[in-house]
Amino acid sequence: MEKHDVVIIGGGIAGLTLAKFLAEYGIDFVLLEEHNGFFKKACGEGVTRYIMEYDFFDLYESRVGIEKEIYETIIYTKYGEISLYMPVLMTDKKKIEEELANQAIKRGADIRMGEKVIKIDRGNNFILKPQNIEAKLVVGADGFFSITRKLIGKKDLKYAIAVEGLSENIDKDNNKIHVEFKKSIVKYGYSWYFPKKEKWNIGVGSTSMKEFRKAFENFKKKHVVEKWKAGYVPVSKPVRPYGKNVLMLGDAASQTISSIGAGNMPSMICARIAADVIKKFDATEFRNMDTKEYEIALKPMTKMLNYEHSFYFFTTRIIRNEYLVYKILKKAVERASKYYKKLGKRD
Ligand SMILES: Cc1cc2nc3c(=O)[nH]c(=O)nc-3n(C[C@H](O)[C@H](O)[C@H](O)COP(=O)(O)OP(=O)(O)OC[C@H]3O[C@@H](n4cnc5c(N)ncnc54)[C@H](O)[C@@H]3O)c2cc1C
User: Fold this and answer.
1) In this structure, are residues 177 and 88 in contact, taking their beta carbons and an 8 Å threshold?
2) Which CATH superfamily is domain 2-344 in?
3) pLDDT average, residue stretch 223-231
4) CA of 102 to the centre of ligand 1 (A)
5) In the structure, which protein residues have their CB atom closer than 6 angstroms to any atom of ligand 1?
6) Does residue 321 carry a pLDDT above 70?
7) Given the CA of residue 234, which atom of ligand 1 is nearest to it?
8) Which residue among 9, 38, 39, 43 has the greatest number of ligand 1 atoms within 8 angstroms of its CB, and so is best to mutate?
9) Which of 14, 98, 117, 192 gives the lowest tally of CB atoms within 10 Å of its CB?
């Protein structure tokens, strides 16, 4: 039987970022991705450049797949426009994932495509089926429908359903992101217009399936799109991200900013943190590893994600009055703009 210290399940942005750093640390691992190519799921392809002390470019170390750098987001509400200063990178996410895989492979990573893990048997170590690979530590970076989350008995996640597609004819300023936060467009969610190099990534999402269906019907009538792609965005608080000899990463552990449905940069940061924890386990040859250390290392991230979750919950579920939501949003945006301006000054 093939044996490895670590197996990463899933080659999305979370698993690939982890692969890159584990390879850099010279840790013995294999990454298994079920598809034969990268980026098969729906995504708006925007990346929040900074979160806390992290800068996307320190994690990614390349400009491949970066299409635009945007600084201003206009939020359209029933009561007026709100301008948010926030550096966002618009990407070609397929290229980003391919580049992360290349960086990992250059550092010696073993990334295997077309390898779907169907079952994980528990013995002294884990055995992944049908690959028959034995692993001392399993990392579930396997997205919203994670089999790893089921393995450690965690509940299903709450979600928003969202759809996105590429469009050419959008009559808006293509140096800004545009977000419609209006109940007349969609309840319990928002629609977006993200400018890419030549096209736009546009979409709409909601935490209510009924409201999503209605909004998508209208959105479809308004816009010509090559192909719509739908997907789930976790909007639960981050779940406990570990079990015995298991860590979870990215959407699998609901490591998303639920107020805006952003998981790309949070997943990468959690991957960076996971790599350092795994490096510690590697130093003792994965004997007596305490996977709770990962949760402890994630604390500042989890605190921030929990805060964003409360904000999302408060402004969509508790407060129903649209004017009050506008006032709260305006204040929050002012605070966020100040924060990002200060962060940007570090460069
Ligand atoms: C419509 C939509 C728009 C979004 N827009 C944005 C945005 O603009 N900005 C942003 O930051 N976030 C956005 N998000 C969220 C973001 O896409 C996710 O948070 C992010 O992709 C999470 O990365 P991940 O690697 O954890 O999961 P995923 O990207 O889902 O990757 C998981 C990988 O695991 C593989 N896998 C799953 N099960 C198995 C298995 N059993 N065996 C082997 N492989 C397996 C899958 O094939 C996949 O490649 C959006 C989400 C949606 C649905």
Assistant:
1) yes
2) FAD/NAD(P)-binding domain (3.50.50.60)
3) 95
4) 19
5) 9-15, 32-35, 40-47, 116-117, 141-143, 147, 162, 164, 203, 231-233, 250-251, 256, 261-265, 267
6) yes
7) 19
8) 43
9) 98
State which ligand 1 atom lies nearest to the alpha carbon of 263: 19
Each residue's pLDDT tens digit, 176-205: 999 999 999 999 999 999 999 999 999 999
Residue 345: pLDDT above 70?
A: no
Average pLDDT, the chain: 95
- Tens digits of per-residue pLDDT, 33-42? 999 999 999 9
252 CA distance to ligand 1 middle (Å): 9
The per-residue b/e assignment along 8-36, b for 16 or more CB within 10 angstroms, e otherwise, is bbbbbbbbbbbbbbbbbeebebbbbbbee
pLDDT in tens, 137-163: 999 999 999 999 999 998 899 999 999
Q: Where are the domains of the chain?
A: 2-344
